[in-house]
Amino acid sequence: MLKKFWLCLGDWLGKILLLALAVGLGGWLIGSLFYSWKFSGPVSLEEQIPVTEKADTQAIIADAIRVVEQHRDNTRVLRDAHAKAHGCLRAEVSVRGDIDSDLQHGVFSQPGHSWQAWVRLSNGNAYPQFDRVRDARGMAIKLLDVPGQKLTANPAHAAEQDFVMFNHPAFFVRDVAEYRSNFAAQAEGKKVLAFFPGWDPRHWEIRHLAIALKTLSPAPDSPVATTYNSVAPFKLGPLNIKYRVIPAPENCPAYQLPEQNRDLPNFLRNALYQQLSLDQTPACFTLQVQRQNADFYMPIEDPSVEWDEAISAFESVADIRLLAQDFDSPAQNIDCDNLSFNPWHSLPEHRPIGGINRLRKAVYEAVSAYRLDRNGALRAVY
Ligand code: HEM
Prior knowledge:
CATH topology of the domain at 82-168 and 217-374: Catalase HpII,  Chain A, domain 1
Radius of gyration: 23 Å
CATH architecture of the domain at 82-168 and 217-374: Beta Barrel
Structural class: alpha+beta
Order of helices and strands: HHEEEEHHEEEHEEHH
Strand content: 15-25%
Largest sheet: 9 strands, antiparallel
Bound molecules: protoporphyrin IX containing FE
Shape: globular
Number of strands: 9
Number of helices: 7
């Protein structure tokens, strides 16, 4: 009797497993077919600005200021995103001698030219937390003494060219309207539910939820051991491109980072300090760009779509060297907090494009001005 029961149960479990497998495979097949139909080229070479974007942007700024106030660190007001820095580092960015002539625009126009720069490395979260917590990791580069008229009217940033990236290649929303509803839901404490705005399944953003979950990844061994992506597109002269920064340890003296204690709250800062300050060993990266090929699905207005490297490969344009240095002093850390990075601190040749970048202009300026003002550090800065 008992034997018959177990056989019967086994039989049913087997069928349920098979059914689940078939449903999973079917879902995957339908999803793949749907996206290969939906995500097919050609796409526009130009920006397309929705009429609601201005109003959505104003609402997002109001929410962002509220978040900044919620996460005040004692008396200091921190960034609304990437609040925790691992360090601000002096760096050299050298245009490669072999850069393709089509890519020689803006700060890359002179092969062999070296720019002095600041690089701020960060965790993505809106308030500081232990480095071992899953999160995005950010890299912001500010080239200094860059001549030429900039897109920002602020004289404080008149000589700067910024590149602002994090270490996942896709963004978790497609446009400003979706950012508004998602951000408002997150500010109310909804995390997963932010991707399900209502009962209508046509508005469920399951693919975007998957991107958000993947973006929150385990910490690398060191901030110099991960790839940082522009995620959103930019101009490079007449071209539309995305850019990224990849580790290039082969361009620096060989170095083995001693194992770090990942239970320490700031072990990513410790890793930088160990390599650059104690062991006085520089860290190297390469800056690369990927051209848009508008015959394929490489959209400007949807940064949740990664541009396919098999269609358009990344090309190296500059070498980056984080110098051996003592960076972890209280004065330098305060200066680091008071810096403002913004993709719109830029030459027209590197103009940010697409809705998420247009949104960033207004939000970074507003949040930066607000926090610097509250921290007594505003020098006509935004
Ligand atoms: C392409 C997608 C994005 C990337 C790669 C990115 C990356 C970053 C990074 C690395 C920082 C830190 C910069 C620093 O070290 O000071 C930052 C700051 C910030 N991000 Fe983003 N971000 C993206 C999109 C957005 C969007 C859509 C918003 C909001 C609308 C936003 C809001 C902010 C704000 C408010 C700051 C702080 C600005 C300041 O106070 O100076 N970001 N972002």
